Amino acid sequence: MALLLLGGCADKSPSPPADSEDSDRPTVTVTAQPQDAGGAQDAVEQLFTLIVSDDWSSVYDLWTDQAQKQIPKDTYVNLISTCPDQGDQYKVTDAKTVNDTTATVAWTREKPSGGEQAGSTTVRYEEGAWRVEPDPAALAAYKSGKCG
């Protein structure tokens, strides 16, 4: 699976004048993720890696800003930690951009009880990064204190 990494480069030149308040701070250039289907796929593959490793705090961090406003991080992490296993075999089967800021990533997973389940995840490009939009039914369940 591809892992999603955000990086930045520091450039200390040209330096601001010595009397400037910012003279002791390097200039940082942030590199945005590619705004294409491949970048969206990378975000969903990272999500699956985090789900398999039960890293629920980092899963939440990948959510869209709008989703994060729906439920506090601690509430989500405490709830999802008590939910049944989500499975450990996820495979992205397709990724398509819907528009400049939205993509849909299709996937399959092996269910813990056996068999395979197909699904899709919507991702949105926000502030230079692809962010996952949780399934609306699952998000509603989390908000009411139930496993999605």
Keywords:
148 residues, alpha+beta, Nuclear Transport Factor 2, Chain: A, two-stranded antiparallel ribbon, 5 helices, 6 strands
Walk me through the topology.
Layout: E1 8-11, E2 27-30, H1 37-52, H2 56-61, H3 65-68, H4 73-80, E3 89-99, E4 102-110, E5 116-126, E6 129-133, H5 136-143
Antiparallel strand pairs: 1-2, 3-4, 4-5, 5-6
Short description:
This protein is an alpha+beta fold.
Tell me about the biggest sheet?
Answer: 4 strands, antiparallel
Gross morphology: globular
Query: Numbering strands along the chain, what is their spatial order in the largest sheet?
Result: 3-4-5-6
Which CATH class? Alpha Beta
Distance separating the two termini: 24 Å
Which class best fits the helix and strand makeup? alpha+beta
DSSP, total strands: 6
Q: Which regions are unreliable across 5 or more consecutive residues at pLDDT < 50?
A: 1-15
Roughly what is the average pLDDT, rounded to an integer? 83
How many domains? The number is: 1
Radius of gyration: 19 Å
The CATH topology annotation reads as Nuclear Transport Factor 2, Chain: A
**Fraction of helical residues:** 25-40%
What multimeric state do the chains show?
single chain
Report the sheet-strand fraction.
Answer: 25-35%
* CATH architecture classification name: Roll
